[in-house]
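pinging the channel bc i need a second pair of eyes. not urgent but kinda urgent?? the chain im working w is below, pasted from the shared doc
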Amino acid sequence: MAPHTRYNRALGDREPIQASREALARIQAHTGTWTPADFDRSHQPGKWTARQTLVHLTHTELTFGLRVRMALTTPGYVVQPFAQDDWMAHEPVAPGREALGTFASLAAMNLALYESLSSAERATPITHPEDGAISVDWIIHLSAGHLLHHAEQLERIR
């Protein structure tokens, strides 16, 4: 049974690593011909631009990948939460294509790691101050649902 995360609705019953690979490919294909102006559009007034969404996805790839690596190498690992809006407030303006490339590289690296893990490694326990007892597998599922959520937003742009 898949772990319950706040992004279960976006992931559904799909296998998370394959769903993430497909979402990454969709994002790259959809944004591949975008101009700088396209990256500064939003899917909805008052929401992040595509560029900001890609920076946010880069932040989460950094964070999720770090959490998995720390959990696999640090017994009793406790997650350090982060405030996404605070991170974004301190982020310099990155060009959209640069944000896309950085995000895609980190996502591919994380997916290769996730795919290499055994069932026992995926079951590695983690403590999250806000979500309680979770596992590496929980992070993999959360990451996939989160990516799918934002892929849909990016596809509504343009």
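so The longest strand covers residues 125-128. and The helical segments are 8-11, 16-31, 36-39, 50-73, 84-89, 96-116, 119-122, 136-155. — does that match what u expected or am i reading it wrong
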